[in-house]
Amino acid sequence: MASQNTSGYEQLQLIQVDPIRRNISLALTQIVVWPFIYLIFLMLLIFSKKETFRTETRYILFGHSLLVDLIFLCLTDFVVLLSYNFVLIPLRFCIPICMLMEAVTACAPLTIIAMCVERYVAICMPLRHQVISTSRRALIVILMIWILSSINPFVDMFILISTASSEYLSQLTHCHYEIMIPEKIRHFARGLLYIVGLVVILTVEVFCYVMIYLAARAASGDNRKSASKGQRTISLHILQLFLCTAEVMCPYIEAVVMQYDIQSYLTVRFVNFLAFSITSRAVSPLVYGFRDEKFYAAMVYYIRCKNNTISSDTIKQS
């Protein structure tokens, strides 16, 4: 437990190294994060307004992906604001925040694999797609995703509560998941578990990609066009999975850099945060929000109607 107190103190010292760097980093974070939060919130609003999106499996999974990304971005930005403004809160209150962040982090790749399998069924088993991909089954899959994603944080919570002292649980700290696993061996095991899981998911995605590729080569006309589009969609999912994998590996790379130079560590940590943690959440809106014709048309319609309403109100007031 003492090692964790030291790591929290080191984190505070690192943030205080350069006030100008800290303020610039905080400003850039807000500039990058909030447009994505607004975009994802807008897409969720459109999703909730169209019954078609709430009944089709792929859109249900897409809506869940958006919700997970929105929760992650909001919690991450909240933790960043606390850290960069030197706000420490009791560890007991950090635990549920860390658990939720861990759960939504694990939800992202699991949702990706569910969306890939749905595309595989739609393209390679078109006659059975309506039977297999139902809204009820999509909701069951989402429930299973949350159950699987919550296992690790709940196990870590029970171990922490049963082994930690009351002094440790009542101390003030920054919110980061390492407070849940102060032992280095558990930190290493957590990273290894994630990597194994992501390798399994990548294997399934490559299988779906190959099968859709073969279907695209054998198809003709509209079927060939649909298969090719599904192939590009899974390619973007593989990119998103790569970003998730890089996000898991980043803390270990940062730990090595920190041993040599603090300034370099701060730079690497900030670049990793923007390049992998935030960018991986921007791929989902790109995959379906802008590439899917039906969803894109709904977005354009909603934005135009909103702008026309604002213009009409302005004219009436004038």
Automatic annotation (TrEMBL):
The chain crosses the membrane at residues 24-47, 59-84, 90-117, 138-161, 192-215, 236-258, 270-290. SUPFAM superfamilies: Family A G protein-coupled receptor-like (SSF81321). Pfam families: 7tm_1 (PF00001). It is found in: Membrane. Keywords: Membrane, Transmembrane, Transmembrane helix. It comes from the Eukaryota. InterPro entries: GPCR1_Superfamily_Member, GPCR_Rhodpsn, GPCR_Rhodpsn_7TM. Residues 39-288 form the G-protein coupled receptors family 1 profile domain. Gene3D superfamilies: Rhodopsin 7-helix transmembrane proteins. PANTHER family: G_PROTEIN_RECEP_F1_2 DOMAIN-CONTAINING PROTEIN (PTHR26451), GROWTH HORMONE SECRETAGOGUE RECEPTOR TYPE 1-LIKE-RELATED (PTHR26451:SF886). This is G-protein coupled receptors family 1 profile domain-containing protein. It comes from Cirrhinus molitorella (mud carp).
